[in-house]
Design goal:
By secondary structure, this protein is of the alpha+beta class. Among the domains are: 9-184 and 208-219 and 262-286, 7-stranded beta/alpha barrel; 513-724, Beta-galactosidase, Chain A, domain 5. The strands form six sheets. An eight-stranded antiparallel β-sheet has the order 17-18-19-20-29-26-25-23. Strands 16, 21, 22, 24, 27 and 28 form a six-stranded antiparallel β-sheet that branches. Strands 11-12-13-14-15 form a five-stranded antiparallel β-sheet.
């Protein structure tokens, strides 16, 4: 009698929502995907599943959906499901320190064990990002296996058939089992009729029965991507071919149950039954699309063409196997705003560690107990800020989703405020403070300056035009510079969008950037950043001449000796510009002085420059509230008189004041502009980024920009005062 050919078929579903995603999103995804998927799993007790929930989503289920929790507990008790762990708030392990990796994994494993009485043995890797040192720390927390893309294996020389097994890898002698995800099944489900997936499994089956074809899917894919809710759960709207319109999910689960040659199994069960095929060492990798998205824009365009050509040419399959894209961490270079969040996270956690060390100075046990509790709260704020979703961009919004960036800053500023409270308990004289710290914050071998007080954080980059790139108003845990630069993207060209639709910036949208331009440019040219720049101050390096604290005032002084080009020749006239930043209580004052050098014999050229050019200084501002509730005023009129003015429309006026109000957060900002040439022309326009997401092409609000425009003289200065309350 012939031995039956079988194949092991573990199915993994990954449930995740970003930290602080909108409540209505949780409810919508629950209704369309999470509930029907779990209900269907519950109805097929013979079919095994491995599930993953990010910690914040599992918290939401526990608080809001007790019926689903009861079903999960019932399935855990009957041995139908395994729940795997990972980072509680879904971090990319590669960019968080060892201590945080361990803490986040333990936090999620402890919650799973407490609620479901399950021992966690596997780890979910956010965005399937893998680095070769992972076996060490995962082994340290008792985890036995991870799931990675088959893409990770290609450059090791492994072909598709070899991915039907598990492997073992090690780092520092600490071992970890590795399961490759099957690419073919990932694209078949739920887009194609169920028989196609079954046919694929049939081809993989053999007499030994030790092959493992792993299907993994985002739970959201089974209900909220495009029309998948109808395909997966609505009778008559499934695939007609083969399934007769039956919803994909129950039809698929029935196929698995009814074909006894398909061995439904959890990953732990497979690992306990079969040894690894062999030892393997995997390179740094993520899934193939991610390795394309991370590449610099121009390189990404070329890479996509090369990948497509190789994949479609059967004679080039061996070459395609070794085609490697970019490295996930490069997102921190591609998007400075991503790097900003990451480096602030590291900066704040270092402050917290210093605070922990200061605890040794406290003698009173009651105070120690209070501080320890607050330290734990601060750590959790930092862990929440490590949620991966807003640190990258591909098909999904990622870094373009401004409310997710805002969440990161809110949690990090919350942590800083807790640290302030702890320091005040340790030293009661520290309830109010201000200081300046020179530090290589960006980690680019140059020095930035951070002015910190109990009210503001100002992050200043002298090397990028002497600009402010982060402005935190701590009483509201609010970063007013949570803007995103309108970066060029590879898909801008592929979507054949007109240049009028796609506005991109040449420089990061930071505060205090100086622009020299011809007086005849249009407002649209200024908004689209398509004018000709005559100066070399816009991104030039400024020299810090003084950084000091005088009582309750912090002062940073910068200067640059540069030049401004003539409008009719290549002659450049020398210019000296100083920028002084004063911070006291809730007021920030900026003083800018411009001095043109009078060069003998070029007096007429200088006169022409002065007559033909204008100077603008950028004030990008970010409000996070409901855009319909933004208000603003100008020329000293009250907000109540300007209810119909839209903050996010291009507007020009003459005055000395700009005021705006975010009603959702009850936050106001005022900018007073003082110069010898009052009143001043002031231009305001929205900052709208053009991103392609899973919902299609979108224009995503990223803040607004206010720019006072000044007439030029041989020597002139202006002052700007910023208040937030």
């Amino acid at each position: 009698m012939d031995k039956i050919e079988t194949v092991c078929f573990p199915m993994v579903y990954h449930f995740h929502q970003p930290v602080n995603n909108f409540p209505w999103v949780f409810e919508d995804v629950y209704k369309k995907s999470y509930k029907p998927l779990i209900d269907n799993i519950f109805q097929f007790p013979e079919v095994k599943f491995t599930l993953h929930f990010s910690g914040n989503l599992l918290e939401w289920f526990l608080e809001n959906k007790p019926d689903i929790i009861m079903k999960l507990k019932s399935m855990a008790n009957r041995g139908q499901i395994e729940i795997i762990g990972g980072g509680y708030y879904e971090p990319i392990f590669a960019i968080i320190p060892y201590r945080d990796r361990i803490a986040q994994i333990k936090k999620l494993s402890d919650l799973i064990n407490k609620e479901f009485n399950l021992e966690v043995k596997g780890a979910w890797l956010s965005e399937r990002v893998w680095e070769p040192d992972y076996p060490s720390f995962l082994n340290d927390v008792g985890l036995k296996y991870v799931i990675v893309d088959d893409n990770h294996f290609r450059s090791t020389g492994i072909i598709e058939e070899d991915t039907f097994y598990s492997y073992i890898t090690e780092h520092e002698g600490k071992t970890l089992r590795v399961f490759p995800i099957n690419e073919e099944l990932r694209y078949l489900t739920p887009w194609k009729p169920t028989y196609m997936s079954i046919d694929y499994l049939k081809k993989a089956a053999d007499e030994k029965g030790n092959r493992c074809v792993l299907l993994i899917s985002d739970a959201e894919k089974m209900g909220v991507w495009g029309t998948t809710h109808q395909i997966c759960y609505v009778e008559g709207q499934g695939h007609e071919e083969g399934d007769g319109g039956k919803p994909f999910i129950p039809a698929f689960f029935e196929q698995i149950r009814n074909n006894n040659w398909i061995k439904s199994i959890t990953l732990t069960e497979y690992m306990e039954k079969f040894p690894a095929k062999s030892l393997i060492y995997l390179p740094t990798a993520s899934y193939d699309k991610m390795e394309e998205w991370v590449l610099p824009t121009q390189i990404r365009k070329n890479f996509k063409k090369i990948r497509k050509a190789l994949k479609e040419d059967e004679t080039k399959s061996e070459t395609y196997q070794f085609l490697k894209g970019g490295f996930w961490r490069y997102f921190l270079v591609k998007y400075p705003e991503s790097n900003n969040m990451h480096k602030k996270m590291l900066y704040v956690r270092n402050k917290l560690i210093s605070t922990e060390e200061n605890l040794l100075k406290v003698q009173e046990n009651r105070i120690v107990s209070i501080i320890l509790k607050k330290i734990n709260e601060a750590w959790d704020e930092i862990y929440k800020a490590q949620c991966n979703d807003c640190y990258w961009h591909g098909l999904f919004g990622g870094v373009y989703l401004q409310f997710l960036r805002f969440s990161v800053y809110t949690h990090l500023i919350n942590a800083e405020k807790i640290i302030d409270t702890i320091n005040a308990l340790i030293n009661p004289n520290l309830t109010s403070y201000i200081y300046i710290t020179p530090v290589d914050f960006i980690k680019d071998s140059r020095t930035e300056y951070i002015i910190e007080s109990d009210i503001y954080n100002l992050y200043i980059n002298p090397n990028d035009g002497g600009t402010i790139f982060e402005l935190d108003y701590k009483p509201k845990s609010y970063n007013l510079l949570n803007t995103l630069t309108r970066w060029p993207e590879a898909y801008h060209e592929s979507k054949k969008l007109s240049s009028k639709e796609v506005l991109v910036d040449r420089f990061r949208r930071s505060m205090l950037r100086l622009r020299f331009f011809h007086k005849d440019i249009t407002l649209e040219q200024l908004q689209s950043d398509t004018y000709y720049e005559f100066g070399d101050f816009i991104d030039g390096g400024f020299r810090v001449t003084s950084s000091e604290k005088e009582g309750k005032i912090a002062i940073l002084e910068m200067e640059k000796i540069g030049s401004v080009k003539d409008t009719e020749s290549n002659y450049r006239n020398p210019v000296r510009i100083t920028k002084d930043i004063y911070v006291e209580d809730n007021e920030i004052e900026i003083r800018v002085r411009i001095n043109f050098e009078e060069v003998l014999g070029n007096e007429n050229v200088l006169e022409r420059i002065i007559n033909n050019l204008r100077l603008a200084i950028d004030f990008p501002i970010f409000f996070n509230g409901d855009t319909n509730k933004f208000q603003w005023e100008y020329d000293q009129k009250e907000l109540s008189e300007n209810k119909d003015l839209n903050l996010l429309e291009l507007f020009e006026y003459e005055g000395t004041m700009f005021k705006a109000y975010d009603e959702s957060y009850d936050l106001r900002i005022e900018i007073e502009m003082i110069s010898d040439s009052d009143p001043i022309k002031i231009v305001k326009f929205p900052i709208i980024a053009y991103a392609y997401t899973e919902e299609g092409y979108q224009q995503i609000y990223q803040g607004f920009n206010v720019s006072p425009l000044f007439k030029i003289d041989k020597s002139f200065e202006f002052h700007l005062k910023i208040k937030t309350f």
